[in-house]
Write a structure and sequence with these properties.
With 663 residues, the chain is α+β, with helices and mostly antiparallel strands. The protein folds into 4 domains: 39 residues, no CATH class; 198 residues, Threonyl-trna Synthetase, Chain A, domain 2 (Threonyl-tRNA Synthetase, Chain A, domain 2, 2-Layer Sandwich), CATH 3.30.980; 230 residues, Bira Bifunctional Protein, Domain 2 (BirA Bifunctional Protein, domain 2, 2-Layer Sandwich); 103 residues, Rossmann fold (3-Layer(aba) Sandwich), CATH 3.40.50. It is 34% helix and 27% strand. An 8-stranded mixed beta sheet has the order 16-22-23-30-27-26-24-25, sandwiched between helices. Strands 6, 7, 8, 12 and 13 form a 5-stranded antiparallel beta sheet that branches. Strands 32-31-33-34-35 form a 5-stranded mixed beta sheet, sandwiched between helices. A hairpin with a 5-residue loop joins strand 34 and strand 35. It binds zinc ion (ZN) (2 copies). The site of one zinc ion has 7 residues, from helix 2.
């Protein structure tokens, strides 16, 4: 018999897993228990740190305002929150006071002491905490199969015993505060350290339902050190600076006019240039890769989406129907029944109809259809976010129809294609997730053999790519496995991009066939493949990744000419014309602004090359470069300048400083 303090002397161990379950270090274990240390910098350790900080926040709130009632206080990604029922909403001023009080509690080194209570005891002790009482009631029901699962409420009352944590003053041994909680926590408040901060205020309905009272939520963050906190705050600032909605305005790329409606974007000329370059490049590569482009309408009769099952499984995500073709007589009686049409939420059914339009033989396969297909989805207006969450967007959607024999070879090709295309756009850091079936659920359709064979095919493809692969049992669609590709951007954020989904189900639903070598009719397998995913979202990711400073080939304006004085306009104008003639997006700034102002403007607009010319350049038939970071290269011969610029475009290079072009 020993507790965790005796087992682990390393100070970074703050909790432990006992037979797989997270426990306080004070828990007593026996030789038969399997005990693993949890260090503060591990994901579990960070969650415990953050949740312990949430406790201290609640204690601080009730110290300042004893009338405040407690909601819940779970850890969340990078931090924590706690909900309170208070008469007056918190203000930035109250955050300052709370910050001070929390620092005091943390310094005092109060111990988090676990105490098992009966439901009757808990109800008596928490008589003044109506929300906690409600959670105790929920726990009572949880035993009968109505549990709240693994959502946030389970922080306070999990399965098993009810526990209260007392905050005990180490000097007096007195309990100064307590909270209903299943734990675990850090051994004491001092271990929270100084890597924490209160972040922001929000309102939140109790248990997420608008039928319930509205509570006041305080968000905070907590890290193992002050340096880590600063690094996190820096990441947030970087992310805010790079916010694509902000850059979209500043660089005049796109907007969401109210007159059109929420989540529906229009692309301005400068944004349109970037998008056109993206699409043209992708189109050229698809054609070279053996894909054929098709075009399909935005709208269809309901029968199609009934057959595809989208109107059963995806109806919530679709726009409501449009009633068409109904006819009435003079009295208003219906003489001809109308038809419901739906905006398409996906392109797959329409591509299937192209396949099905005539008999197919094994010689036609693989058949690779591609479309930049615009789809419409009924996202809640509250969920919309810039270009990353919209109601209308364009998928770079492909559907490949293959024989079962071709599945592995074709998915290998698809993965290679996807990765090399993303590299063309300057993304480098990828990892893969393989969603597969498990043996727990019985939702899987199709034979064991099909699952083995298709999952193995995807696994082989993923392994051959050499990228980090995570297998996710139980995460597959009910009909087949898929691979998701994620990328990490310039500030370390992970984005889900491409998906390769194996699907025998839609071919079955639509009764697709091909005639095999042996003359037998067989069923093809479909591969759904979105590469960028949504063009809008991919554009937003690139915009944030590059903080608006696109590689030269994507930059809306590639070159701006800035004459030192008006008399050099003809000389520099001729160079700009020369560049345009070789397909460079070049402009001459002949505005009345002073030269320094022009340089500032185009630097803010993140134009890769500013070409400046004055007397020396004109006399020597040269031009001077100024780069995004302010570095320069003076007196470059005109031919050489054009050749360098052209090469940076053709090689899809990023150029931010002199050495990126002249080295
Ligand atoms: Zn707790
Ligand atoms: Zn599809």
């Amino acid at each position: 018999m020993a507790d965790g303090f005796a087992l682990f002397t390393d100070r970074s161990v703050v909790a432990m897993r006992v037979n797989g379950e997270l426990k306080d270090l004070a828990t007593t274990v026996t030789d038969d228990d399997v005990v693993e240390p949890v260090t503060i910098d591990s994901p579990d350790g960070l969650s415990i740190l953050r949740h312990s900080a949430a406790h201290v926040l609640a204690q601080a709130v009730q110290t300042i305002n004893p009338e405040a009632k407690l909601g819940i206080g779970p850890p969340v990604t990078d931090g924590f929150y706690y909900d309170f029922d208070v008469a007056e909403p918190f203000t930035p001023e109250s955050l300052k006071a709370l910050d001070k009080e929390m620092a005091r509690i943390i310094r005092s080194g109060q111990r988090f002491m676990r105490r098992v209570v009966t439901e009757v005891e808990a109800r008596a002790e928490l008589a003044n905490e109506p929300y906690k009482l409600e959670l105790i009631g929920l726990k009572g029901r949880a035993g009968h199969g109505e549990g709240s699962g693994d959502d946030h409420e389970s922080v306070e009352v999990g399965a098993g015993e009810l526990t209260i944590y007392d905050n005990v003053d180490p000097k007096t041994g007195e309990t100064v505060w307590k909270d209903l909680c299943r734990g675990p926590h850090l051994p004491n408040t001092r271990m929270i350290g100084n890597g924490w901060a209160l972040m922001r205020l929000a309102a939140a309905y109790w248990r997420g339902s608008e039928k319930n009272p509205q509570l006041q939520r305080i968000y905070g963050t907590a890290w193992t050190t002050k340096d880590e906190l600063r690094a996190y705050q820096h990441r947030l600032e970087e992310a805010a600076k790079r916010d694509h909605r902000k850059l979209g305005r500043e660089l005049d790329l796109f907007s969401f006019p109210d007159e059109i409606g929420s989540g529906l974007s229009v692309w301005h000329p400068r944004g349109g240039v970037v998008r056109m370059e993206m699409e043209q490049h992708a189109r050229r590569r698809h054609v070279a890769g053996g894909y054929t482009y098709v075009y399909t309408p935005h709208i269809s009769k309901e029968d199609l989406f009934l057959q595809s099952n989208h109107l059963v499984t995806y109806k919530e995500g679709m726009f409501p129907p449009i009633r068409m073709d109904e006819e009435r007589d003079a009295e208003g009686n219906v003489t001809k029944q109308g038809q419901d049409y739906y905006l398409k939420p996906m392109n797959c059914p329409m591509h299937i109809l192209i396949y099905k339009e005539r008999g197919r033989s094994y010689r036609d396969l693989p058949m690779r259809l591609a479309e930049n297909g615009t789809v419409y989805r009924n996202e809640l207006s509250g969920a919309l976010h810039g270009l990353t969450r919209v109601r209308g967007f364009t998928q770079d959607d492909s559907h490949l129809f293959v024989t079962p024999d071709q599945l592995e070879e074709e998915t290998t090709k698809v993965m290679d294609f996807v990765i090399s295309m993303l590299r063309d756009f300057g993304l480098e850091d990828f990892e893969l997730e393989l969603s597969m079936r498990d043996d727990q659920s019985d939702k899987w359709i199709g034979s064991e053999e099909f699952w083995d064979y298709s999952t193995n095919a995807l696994r082989n493809v993923a392994r051959a790519s050499g990228l980090k692969l995570t297998e996710m049992p139980g995460e597959a669609a009910f009909y087949g496995p898929k691979i998701d590709l994620k990328t990490r951007d310039a500030i370390g954020r992970t984005w889900q991009l491409s998906t390769v989904q194996v699907d025998p189900n839609l071919p079955e639903r639509f009764d697709l066939e091909f005639t095999d070598r042996d003359g037998q009719k067989k069923r093809p397998i479909m591969i759904h493949r979105a590469l960028f995913g949504s063009i809008e979202r991919f554009f937003a990711i690139l915009l944030e990744h590059y903080a608006g400073a696109f590689p030269v080939w994507l930059a809306p304006v590639q070159v701006v000419g800035i004459p030192v004085a008006d008399e050099y306009v003809p000389y520099l104008g001729a160079i700009i014309e020369l560049l345009r003639g070789s397909g460079v997006r070049a402009e001459l700034d002949t505005s009345d602004d002073r030269m320094q102002k022009k340089i500032r403007t185009h630097t803010t607009q993140k134009v890769p090359f500013q070409l400046i010319a004055g007397e020396q350049d004109r006399a020597g038939e040269t031009v001077s470069f100024r780069f995004r970071d302010g570095t320069q290269e003076n007196g470059v011969a005109i031919d050489e300048a054009v050749a360098h610029i052209r090469a940076s475009i053709d090689e899809r290079r990023q150029v931010t400083t002199r050495d990126d072009l002249f080295s």
